[in-house]
Amino acid sequence: MNIIGIIASQRKEGNTAFIVNKILEGAKEQSAETSIFGFADLDIKPCRGCWGCHKSDRGCVIKDDMQKIYDALEHADAIVLGLPIYMGQMSAQGKIFTDRLFARFSPRFSPFFKENAVKQKLILSFNQGNPDADLFKTYIDYTKQMFEMLEFDVKEVPVVTGLRNGPAHEREDLRTSLKDFGSALVVYP
Ligand SMILES: Cc1cc2nc3c(=O)[nH]c(=O)nc-3n(C[C@H](O)[C@H](O)[C@H](O)COP(=O)(O)O)c2cc1C
C-alpha cells in the first residue's frame, strides 16, 4: 500500500508536521510505503482558475512543486492530509492544495472516475489550539462531505485539540493514538 502525507502548514517542525508523521509511522509499521510533502519545503501556487487542466490532457498548467504531488497522487492508495485550523478554517496551504485538486477532473485523472474505480482512502487530520473539539464541528463535517464529493473515501477525521497549551510532540497521549490511525489505514478493506 502506498500512502502520501501532506502537511498543509508552513511550520516545518510544527504540530501538523508532527501529526502527519506520526500517522504515517503507524502505516509504515504495517509495511506501507509512505512519502511526505510539506508546504514548508515546496513552492505551490494557488489555482489560477484558467481551466487549462480541462482543456488538454496535460494536467495542471502551473509547473510548480504541485506536479510532484500530482505524480504521487496517481500512485497513492491513501492520503493523510494534515490541516491546521487557522481562523476557524483549514489553513491557506490546505485550501491551495484542495483547489489544485481541480486538475483531477482533467482527462489526466480520468481513471479515478471510471465506473467501479477504487477510491483513494483519505484521513483528514485537523488540529487546533482551542481545547473544544466541537467548536469547528460544522466546518469539519462540511469539509469531510466536500472531500467525499471529490470521490475520496474518507476513513477518519481526527481532530487534535488544545494545542495552545503545548506543542503536539509533548503530548504523550497522541503518540499511540495517531499511529493507530495510520496502521488502521493499511488494514481497512
Ligand atoms: C494564523 C493562525 C490562526 C489560528 N486560528 C485558530 C483558530 O481559529 N482556532 C484554533 O483553535 N486555533 C487556531 N490557531 C492555532 C493553530 O490551529 C494551532 O496552533 C495548530 O496546531 C498550528 O499548526 P502548525 O504548528 O502546523 O502551524 C491559529 C494559529 C494561527 C497561526
Can you give a write-up of this model?
Helices cover 35% and strands 19% of the residues. With 189 residues, the protein is an alpha/beta fold. It has a single domain, classed as Flavodoxin domain (Rossmann fold). Strands 1, 2, 3, 4, 5, 6 and 7 form a seven-stranded mixed beta sheet that branches. Helix 1 (15-29) crosses helix 6 (172-187). It binds flavin mononucleotide.
Q: Name the overall outline.
A: globular
- CATH class division: Alpha Beta
Q: Can you write the helix and strand succession as a string?
A: EHEHHEEHEHEEH
CATH superfamily: Flavodoxin domain
Radius of gyration: 16 Å
Mean pLDDT, to the nearest integer, reads: 93
Number of strands: 7
In terms of DSSP E residues, the strand content is 15-25%
Continuous helix count: 6
> Which cofactor or ligand species appear?
flavin mononucleotide
- N-to-C CA distance: 12 Å
Largest sheet: 7 strands, mixed
Protein name: Iron-sulfur flavoprotein
Keywords: Flavoprotein, FMN
GO molecular function: oxidoreductase activity
Pfam family, one: FMN_red
Question: Gist?
Answer:
One of its GO terms (molecular function) is oxidoreductase activity. Keywords: Flavoprotein, FMN. The protein is 35% helix and 19% strand.
